[in-house]
Specification:
Layout lengths: L17 H10 L3 E3 L11 E3 L1 H20 L4 E3 L8 H6 L2 H4 L1 E6 L6 E3 L21 E4 L3 E3 L9 E3 L5 H6 L1 H8 L5 E10 L14 E11 L4 H18 L7 E5 L11 E9 L3 E12 L1 H10 L5 E3 L4 E3 L2 E8 H12 E6 L2 E6 L10 E5 L6 H12 L5 E3 L5 H10 L4 E5 L1 H6 L1 E6 L5 E5 L3 H8 L4
The protein binds zinc ion.
Zinc ion (ZN) binds next to loops.
């Protein structure tokens, strides 16, 4: 994989606001507000034609690094709805909650720990908050035709528990030895009291989580290992290193299951350093809890020492949507070109939704057949887009704005010399390449995808 393109002359605005990205995402087909024609629904977003491509690219890059390129990690894809006892064992039924207050004046609901003072941020009323109550973040529903307590189930608030309850299945079917990991990408749901900041905190989201099982005495070392690996991954897919940092949790921040946790944080100019990924030492909390609640032994037989042990677990967990937001935010550039503002997304070629745009200089009937032939030649190799509407300058701008690394232009000379122009997004440099050599030339410029 190529390094992050760093030669582009554009600069990201020092205070890039989420509104700018929300607007670009909607205008260009990345992300739409959920159920928009009905007035939307807070905390739910729909990914559009370009968004789904970019999201798939992120998931593919994660799976490649975490599963494909490793001998010690395997994947699963578990059901979203699990036996409700899973969430009793994991502690989520009892403790997965936020303190919440209502404003008696305007009826708005807030997280108590997000309020600065006694003044309602919605209506300005003073001293009108109710006492804080605990509010469980899991969505509830029912399995089967009867809506009673016995049929209550939850939409999973994290994918991790599926790895713990399948521990024995994976060890046995895949003949795994410690240390090893189980990875999963999938939807999770949290009934956040205050979703916000675009797709940073939403109520339905996708997670990429990996549970790494190891000997208890080695958990500390693996925690450091996975912190390094995960930081390196973000840099490899194009996040600028100066916008990333690792921060160890203070004891009072730790989750009920964790002894040590790092957050990888991203520096959003609009809201400061914010959590992008958590890397937690979950100890043997989950396996022990499930063994106790299910009555099944969830131990690992160590052939060296002839002992049954309960492994510790190190977990790197990142939200796909949050990674998506960070990649867009980090890639956003503005610059002046001949007195006009040019906006472009300096996305890593592996992450960009469209790799190559095919642009005939005009809709002239002599150009179109050749342009279409070039397009047909490229499609099996790259995600492409064919565009012949409006002036070539406007089409370049459109591709810049969606982060397409390369444009291929077919002009009248192409009919004679059987060559086309490759135009690069970041430098806007143009090179002439024979159509015969086009696929390898594009591949090289994209850094061998
Ligand atoms: Zn109020």
């Amino acid at each position: 994989m190529a390094d992050n393109p760093s030669t582009g002359s554009g600069r990201s605005p020092s205070e890039l606001q989420f509104e700018t990205l929300v607007s670009l995402c909607k205008r260009r087909g990345f992300v739409f507000p959920g159920s928009e024609i009905y007035g939307g629904i807070g905390g739910f977003w729909d990914y559009g034609p370009l968004g789904v491509e970019m999201k798939n690219n992120i998931k593919r890059a994660w799976w490649q690094a975490m599963v494909q390129e490793r001998d010690d990690v395997v994947g699963i894809d578990a059901a979203v709805i699990m036996n409700a006892r899973v969430w009793e064992a994991s502690g989520h039924v009892e403790t997965f909650s936020d303190p919440m207050v209502d404003c008696r004046s305007c009826k708005h609901r807030f997280r108590a720990d997000h309020l600065d003072g006694d003044v309602c941020p919605e209506c300005g009323a003073v001293g009108q908050f109710t006492e804080a109550r605990q509010f469980n973040l899991m969505f509830k529903t029912f399995v089967g035709p009867v809506e009673d307590e016995a049929s209550v189930v939850y939409l999973r608030p994290e994918t991790a528990q599926a790895m713990f309850v399948n521990f024995e299945n994976v060890v046995t079917s895949m003949r795994r030895k410690l240390p090893f990991g189980i990875a999963q990408i999938g939807r999770s749901f949290r009934n956040e009291i205050t979703p916000g900041n675009f797709i940073f905190r939403d109520r339905e989201f996708e997670q990429m989580e990996m549970e790494y099982f190891c000997r208890p005495e080695e958990a500390g070392r693996w925690l450091e290992h996975w912190l390094r690996e995960r930081l390196a991954w973000f840099k490899r897919i194009g996040v600028r290193p100066e916008n990333l940092r690792a921060r160890a949790h203070k004891p009072e921040e730790l989750s009920h299951y964790s002894s040590h946790t790092y957050d990888i944080e991203y520096n959003f100019a609009a809201m400061g350093w914010s959590e992008l990924e958590g890397i937690a030492n979950r100890t043997d909390f989950d396996l022990k809890a499930h063994a106790q609640h299910s009555g099944k032994s969830l131990t690992y037989f160590d052939e060296e020492t002839n002992e049954h042990i309960v492994p510790y677990v190190v977990e790197p967990a990142v939200g796909v949507d949050r990674a998506f937001l960070v990649l867009l935010y980090d890639a956003y550039r503005e610059e002046e070109v001949r007195g006009e503002k040019r906006v472009f997304l300096q996305l890593h070629p592996q992450i960009a939704p469209i790799k190559v745009a095919v642009l005939p200089l005009s809709r002239n009937e002599k150009l179109v057949p050749l342009a279409q032939a070039v397009h047909a030649k490229l499609r099996p190799h790259f995600m492409t887009q064919y565009d012949d509407a409006q002036s070539i300058g406007r089409r370049y701008r459109r591709q810049d704005e969606i982060g397409t690394p390369l444009c291929v232009t077919i002009d009248f000379e192409s009919l004679e010399d059987k060559a086309v122009t490759i135009r690069e997004r970041d430098s806007m440099d143009q090179t002439r390449v024979a159509i015969e050599e086009l696929v390898p030339a594009l591949r090289e410029k994209l850094g061998e995808l």
